[in-house]
Amino acid sequence: MKNIRNFCIIAHIDHGKSTLADRMLEITKTVEARKMKEQLLDQMDLERERGITIKMQPVRMEYAGHILNLIDTPGHVDFGYEVSRSLAAVEGAVVLVDATKGVQAQTLANLYQAIEHNLEIIPVANKIDLPNADVEKTKAEIMHIIGCKKEDILEVSGKTGEGVDKLLQRIVEVVPAPSGDENKPLRALVFDSKYDIYKGVLAYVRVIDGGISAEEEILMLATGAKSDVIEVGYFKPDFQKTPKIKVGEIGYIATGFKSVEYCKVGDTVTISKFEKQIEKLPGYREVSPMVYASFYPTSGDDYNLMRDALSKLKLNDAAFVFEPESNLALGRGFRCGFLGLLHLEIIQARLEAEFELSPTITTPGVVYEIQLTGKNEEDRLKVYSPSELPDPSAIEAIFEPYVNLEIISPSNYLGAIMEMMQNTRAEYLDTEYLNSERMILKFNCPLTDVITNLHDDLKSASSGYASMNYELSNYRANDLVKLDIIIAEERVEAFSRIVPKIWAHSEGKRIVEKLKDSIPRQNFQIAIQAAIGGKVLARETVKAFRKDVISGLYGGDITRKRKLLEKQKKGKKKMKNIGKVTIPSEAFLAVLKK
Q: Long-range pairs for 17-20 at CB < 8 Å and ≥24 separation?
């Protein structure tokens, strides 16, 4: 156990974590040269295509008589929960900073998590081989946020391999060996899981106490599920079977469970006969979706196909949830929960790539909490879509989620970013300067404002140089209302939304104008209205087709023409009362796009 070193690499998205991991695998000869390829630990096609890590990936290496267990983590804010779990499984963290970009938002967020877990921090400046790398400036930023000495910061190039040997030596020297007792009953932390057709759920575990071998009966403390172990092993980085995994080691347990629901990330595994003696490991929390959107198959016949596809995606992604729902306009579909917008994009891209399904997606929204009149605060009602809102007279207050938002940007974009933030309901908290050229801006902001267009607006305002990170802080009561859209005197639930009262008029106007352009003309005129309760805020009218009934008249008195026009008018009035409007699906998509 004394020769084991467990560590992970944390960094902002695209700072070179997976490339550095490749060089480590080469230097330690973990993978044969003929099997080596770029970003070897990014196993999914989508990860390789986009150049980002979506799932954390562990690997076991041997170097200078030591066993090094590395966990390569994702860098995007949506997968922050994955990072927090991997930090709980290790004793050291390599904080990687791209020398061409400097410290960015997710670097900071992950670093704070690592400090909370009391990990040994190894600061590294990466990509030093690039001509535009500013190593000195990057080191100054790292010293500012970590408070370390300049000589503690290593310089490496994940691409050329320069300095990676020194980094491996530093890991062996400074990362503490794991503590634990091999004579105690088994306690292991599940930090990830994956579904395998033949072996069931594979639990990726860090053994804290004791050990585990095949054919023992295990118990999951959070879910209470029991199963016989099929096999245990290490990551090399493929699965390598072994008779036993011992205290301090990182490996996998093939549990035989048929659903990821039984083996949740963050759970504690033990042998079922020790059930009464074992306490749960700290830090387990349910990962709950922050953003909801509905997926509808483009053709009704694809409904069952889509349900099977989503079920398969859920097997390998415990944070993704879905349930069936139906909509008058779009038919039957599924309401899906995600960790953020990138997570939504990933699921959508996997549906297209792996199952050839291109769903219609509704506007992403957040979960609101409703305080009903005369009820306790604890009994708040959770609302996932506007159609679930109770009668306004029964609502005392509507609460919406707020996040702590951090934006890291070059200082010369301060004015543009502040101007952009004035279009949201964010509260400015603080500015901290990393150095004379870069700053951290802190805000409290409603999650709705963050997920709509903030990322794109921020990139535009800062010419692509700023980065942002956010985490859920609390729920706050706000003056929110349900905006209804009424077409030809009928409420269309699919267009309803919950909006801040101050934005209701402008949002209503935007929607009715979009609909006017999207709904085809009929033989009668159609009124499109945006309303709150009985009060109409905005209205547009789709003009009717009109047949030229007087084209057959030659000359004659004006009264003859008027008689025919009056007759036509009466007919139109009748049609208007019985006419039903057909709304094309393009109209729904037009409204969703801001």
A: 17/53, 17/72, 17/73, 17/75, 17/96, 18/42, 18/53, 18/72, 19/158, 19/159, 20/94, 20/96, 20/126, 20/156, 20/158, 20/164
339, 287 contact by CB (below 8 A): yes
The tokens describing 563, both together, are: 């008689």
What residue spans of 278-340 are helical by DSSP H? 303-315
**Cα four-point dihedral sign 457, 462, 468, 473:** negative
Superfamily of domain 187-277: Translation factors (2.40.30.10)
Tokens read off for 102: 């400097």
C-alpha 421/C-alpha 101 separation (Å) is: 23
Longest dimension (CA), the chain: 111
CATH architecture group of domain 4-174: 3-Layer(aba) Sandwich (3.40)
* Of 116, 7, 115, 118, residue with least CA distance to 71: 7
Among residues 31, 56, 30, the alpha carbon closest in space to that of 43 is found at 56
Q: Please tell me the distance from the alpha carbon of residue 391 to that of residue 178, in angstroms, as a whole number.
A: 57
Strands 200-209, 212-213: pairing kind: unpaired
Domain 368-478: assigned CATH number: 3.30.70.240
Question: Cα separation of 117 and 283, whole Å?
Answer: 10
The pLDDT value recorded for residue 443 is 92
- The answer to whether the bond into 237 is cis (omega within 30° of 0) is yes
Q: Check: CB of residue 128 under 8 Å from CB of residue 98.
A: no
State residue 562 phi and psi, 5-degree precision: -65, -35
Fold of 291-361: Alpha-Beta Plaits (3.30.70)
Listed in sequence order, the residues at least 6 apart from 557 whose beta carbon sits closer than 8 Å to its beta carbon are: none
The whole-number pLDDT of residue 329 equals 65
pTM of the shown model: 0.72
As a whole number of angstroms, the distance between CA 253 and CA 207 comes to 11
- DSSP 8-state secondary structure symbol assigned to residue 174: H
Residue spans of the chain under pLDDT 70? 1, 32-56, 75-82, 283-286, 316, 318, 328-329, 546, 549, 551-552, 572-580, 582, 584-594
Indicate the helix (H) or strand (E) that contains 20. helix 17-27
C-alpha span between 476 and 398 (Å, rounded): 8
Kindly report the number of other CB atoms within 10 A of residue 82's CB atom.
23
147: left (phi over 0), alpha (psi -120 to 50) or beta: left
Pick the closest to residue 119 from 208, 248, 10, 267 (CA basis).
Answer: 10
Contact 266, 190 (CB under 8 A): yes
pLDDT, one tens digit per residue, over 417-426 is 999 899 888 9
Task: Retrieve residue 113's tokens.
Answer: 């998590």
pLDDT at residue 442, rounded to an integer: 92
Residue environment code for 562-581, b if the CB has 16+ CB neighbours within 10 A, otherwise e: eeeeeeeeeebeeebeeeeb
